[in-house]
Amino acid sequence: MEAAEAANLDLVKIAPQATPPVCKILDYGKYRFEQQKRDKENKKNQKVVEIKEVRLSLNIDTNDFNPKANQAAKFLAAGHKVKVSIRFRGREMAHSALGAEVMKRFAAALPQANMDKNPILEGRTMTMLLIPSPNK
Question: Which residues form the domain of 90?
Answer without folding.
Answer: 51-132
